[in-house]
Description:
- The protein contains two helices and 19 strands.
- By secondary structure, the protein is mainly beta.
- The protein has two domains: 1-77, no CATH class; 80-301, Jelly Rolls (Sandwich).
- Strands 6, 7, 8, 9, 10, 11, 12, 13, 14, 15, 16, 17, 18 and 19 form a 14-stranded antiparallel sheet that branches.
- The radius of gyration is 24 Å and the shape is globular.
Amino acid sequence: xxxxxxxxxxxxxxxxALVLASGLFGAHCSLVVDTSGLTGGATIDSGVxxxxxxDATLVDATQDAPADAVVEIDGPDEPVASRYxxxxxxxxxxxxYHLDETAGATAGDAMGTHPGTYFGSVQLGQxxxxxxxxxxxxxxxxxxxxxxALGVFRARTPFTIELWAKPLGYDGEYRxxxxxxxxxxxxxxxxxxxNAQDQxxxxxxxxxxxxxxxxxxxLPPIDGFFHHLxxxxxxNGLVMYRDGVVxxxxxxxxxxxxxxxxxYIGTGETGRFTSNAVIDEVxxxxxxxxxxxxxxHFEIARGK
Length: 304
């Protein structure tokens, strides 16, 4: 909880209302004060102080303020990471990886159904998108997570891939942030995923019998920040969002084989196509998230 301090000077009783909102990357408060009846000035100190626990308290910060200007306020002050996780879980993902491990070979799944296996030169414990959280860096020739077969990428079944990525650099290699890989009996490539390449840009693609279609756009900036990336397939087309905004789309109503393959995070397959990025908060859904939910997730992470 937070302690909000307000300094008020008045000669008569003060009527006031307080509206408290929590936010990301430090708390944000909005304050509404009804100053009707004030004969003196009102000075608002909008500084927010962290308190270890307990209720948020409106504190009398002056000796001449009325004695009844102290109000106890009960209300939640959930950390942003918790609020974001609740929003993701509310949309019932098939898998949800916080990527908060600092040791070991297992990537935990918040859904408890599809834990992944780290392989190669992954670097755990990197700074994540939330204060105090961690993420995973995928660099070198081989580094990734094998999440196994998820059972959500079949035929024309809608799906969504959501993650946060901080790119470290681009080159002529296909740098996959996530990929489902499957070859049919004839050797046809039937995969899907999102990758970045210096000549081809950023693309969210589906391949069926080795014929690809993709929603393509320019490369995300290498600016030292995480960017929210959401790739949605609704059975009729591909849509890609970055930071809550549609950046590319492509019609695709083709039906893929009714089979599933290995889903990789941070790479396209074992031994090559490493993302060269830091990745955090990965979720896959067996449905198409609508635009309101995509924006909601992004805004919650921003503290809105």
